[in-house]
Write a structure and sequence with these properties.
It catalyses: chorismate = prephenate. By secondary structure, the protein is an all-alpha fold. It has ten helices and no strands. Bound molecules: ligand ISJ.
Length: about 260
């Protein structure tokens, strides 16, 4: 959502953005799975002389976020930091445009969950368990791009929820007042849309992951990424977390 886009806010435009974000996620996944899991990156403690606690990955990620915060990354309501306590002030001034989201949006951040699922469930599912290849900086750069894309997609649930609330305020209001999470979840869920998403991401994974050659008669070779795994990623984590964000945002929408 660009600044000043409030008037264009519609479920269709938000869904178009989610569709475009699928491309980013799948391309970033294809990049990450070139490398093995590289578990040392996430476990390794740095030498005590470095004065840095935590893993090499955590260090790289925190420093990346801190640098990006200086150039205004987290002034955007689409961006949510993984390490909010470690940010620097932005040298870019805040643009004055009417906020689209309710101010309570700032308190909804599920990045801790995303990071845990990413390291403990996603990486083992998508990457080989071959020995560390020592490409730690490059692997972490891929991780950060991918995690930021996943986080942006999942927290886009705030915009989805806002537009659904504006479109059907009378339906949402009583459940918000009653703080009824299950009823809100039911109301915001569109199963047919979810089925389409799962099919589309599998198809994109097949197309984006195919080997491109100049020889048209070559038999189809195994793609770079398993389309079923991408569909599963959306089914088990991306869509449920997006809906979790939607519910969390709505619960606070009348504060
Ligand atoms: C995002 C939406 O809300 C829900 C979540 C979806 C998703 O994460 O892709 C899809 C459909 C809905 O069940 C939407 O309605 O588009």
């Amino acid at each position: 959502m660009a600044c000043g886009d409030d008037g264009k806010l519609s479920l269709d435009s938000i869904r178009d953005s989610l569709i475009r974000q699928e491309d980013t996620i799948i391309f970033n996944l294809i990049e990450r799975i070139k490398f093995p899991i590289n578990p040392s990156l996430y476990k390794q403690q740095l030498p005590s002389s470095s004065n840095i606690s935590g893993s090499l990955f955590q260090y790289l990620f925190q420093e990346t976020e801190s640098l990006q915060s200086k150039v205004g990354r987290y002034l955007s309501p689409e961006e949510n930091p993984f390490f909010p306590d470690n940010l620097s002030d932005s040298i870019i001034p805040l643009t004055k445009c009417t906020p689209v989201l309710h101010p309570a949006a700032e308190s909804v951040n599920v990045n801790e969950k995303i990071l845990d699922i990413y390291i403990n469930q996603m990486l083992p599912l998508f990457c080989t368990e071959a020995d560390d290849d020592a490409n730690f900086a490059t692997t972490a750069a891929c991780d950060i791009q991918l995690l930021q894309a996943l986080s942006r997609r999942i927290h886009y649930g705030k915009f989805v929820a806002e537009v659904k609330f504006r479109d059907s305020t009378d339906e949402y209001k009583p459940f918000i007042l009653a703080q009824d999470k299950d009823a809100l979840m039911k109301l915001l869920t569109f199963e047919a849309v979810e089925e389409m998403v799962k099919k589309r991401v599998a198809k994109k994974a097949k197309v984006f992951g195919q080997e491109v050659t100049l020889n048209d008669s070559v038999e189809e070779v195994k793609g770079k990424i398993d389309p079923l795994l991408v569909s599963r990623l959306y089914d088990e984590w991306v869509m449920p977390l997006t809906k979790f964000v939607e519910v969390e945002y709505l619960l606070r929408r009348l504060d």
